[in-house]
Amino acid sequence: MDFRQIETFAAVVEQKSFSAAAEALHVSQPTVSSHIKALEAEVGRELITRTTKHFYVTQDGYRFYEYAANLLKLRRRALYDMTNNSTTVIHISASTIPSAYILPGIISEFKAVRPDVTVSVIQSDSGKAVERLMEGNADLGVVGSTGYSENIYFSEIMKDRLVVCAPPEKYYKELKAAGTDLRTLLKEPIILREKSSGTKKEAENILKRMEISENDLNIAAYMNDMEAIKKCIAGGLGISIVSFLSVAKEAERGEVVVMEPPELSGGRSFYIALRKDYVVPAAVEEFIAYLRKSVGRNCR
Predict the structure, then answer these.
(1) Alpha-carbon torsion 204, 158, 94, 76, what sign?
(2) Is the distance from CB of 211 to CB of 183 less than 8 angstroms?
(3) Helix (H) or strand (E) segment spanning residue 210
(4) Dihedrals φ, ψ of 57, to 5°?
(5) pLDDT for residue 81 is more than 70
(6) From CA 199, how far away is CA 186, in angstroms rounded?
């Protein structure tokens, strides 16, 4: 068994055709047939059933394909690591909260351990961050929601919670002291995030369960930038449903009022996002491990 046979077998399964696999590998169809026949002889199982009219992968074939895919991925990673001796760049596609409140401190600490690695962070909302990842323009994503594509693997790294952030006025302090429920608070002027924001997606799920639509809200403004939202809240424009991480310091300084009505008690999570077909380089794996280890300590 050699990698040429394994690569040929994987191509046949993926292309669902001997001729298409031959074209993809730039070899002849008899060569493809020869590799498959030799592989089946070595494993002692029929992996692919083919006739003049039919083609299908056997149950044993699908089992072996899992091993084949992992072996080919390991070979690609080994070649990548051995042939890339220059400075490594890790490209991260991150949504607003992770890029501003989670990653900066962790990246600084990671650079102290791995000064040869450069970390590049591109900020957008969660939807666009995943889109950039799907297009192959990032090594990993750090986002606030899931479900954008079946080709992306999401892994939770930390939990946060949604809160209502309000101006630091006596009126809102009294609402907080009274334990005002979310339905009542949502009668106030409200600032909403952009459509594909992870925070907005989580907030919309809560409103949907409460049978409240966006048309029912007194919308003061739509804004993309979290810092701008906080300044507008502090200036009295209205309330907003935000991540606690984004307003923790302002709340501590008394610049805003943070309320946690029970309807928001379910919390929200942040995730590492990876393409399922991506061969993760060693430096990226090391950064992910460091991120997982450090995130709790850096984000309290």
Answers:
(1) negative
(2) no
(3) none
(4) -85, 130
(5) no
(6) 16
pLDDT digits over 15-40, tens only? Answer: 888 888 888 888 888 999 999 999 99
Which residue is it, tokens 């090391």?
286
For 188, the 3-state DSSP assignment is coil
**What CA–CA distances, in Å, run from 115 to 119, 138, 180, 220?**
10, 20, 50, 46
The token duo for 21 is 């696999």
Confidence of residue 210 (pLDDT cuts 50, 70, 90): very high
Could you tell me if 288 and 272 are in contact, meaning their C-beta atoms sit under 8 angstroms apart? yes
Report how far apart, in Å, the C-alpha atoms of 242 and of each of 3, 160, 180, 207, 271 are. Answer: 51, 10, 17, 14, 17
pTM of the model: 0.62
- Among candidate residues 160, 164, 153, 167, the one with its CA nearest the CA of residue 192: 164
- Type and span of the H or E element at 89: strand 88-94
DSSP-assigned beta bridge partners for residue 257: 166
Out of 18-32, 34-48, 194-208, least confident range: 194-208
* 105 vs 254: CA distance, rounded Å: 24
Ordered by where they begin, the domains of the chain are 3-83 (1.10.10.10), 88-159+269-298 (3.40.190.10), 162-266 (3.40.190.10)
* CA–CA gap between residue 73 and residue 108 (Å, rounded): 30
Backbone angles phi, psi at 193, to 5 degrees: -80, 175
Using a 10 angstrom Cβ sphere, with 0-12 exposed, 13-18 middle and 19 or more buried, the burial of residue 60 is middle
Is a pLDDT exceeding 90 seen at residue 85?
A: no
H or E stretch covering 16: none
Q: Are the CB atoms for 7 and 65 separated by under 8 Å?
A: no
pLDDT tens digit sequence for 212-246? 998 999 999 998 888 999 999 999 999 999 999 99
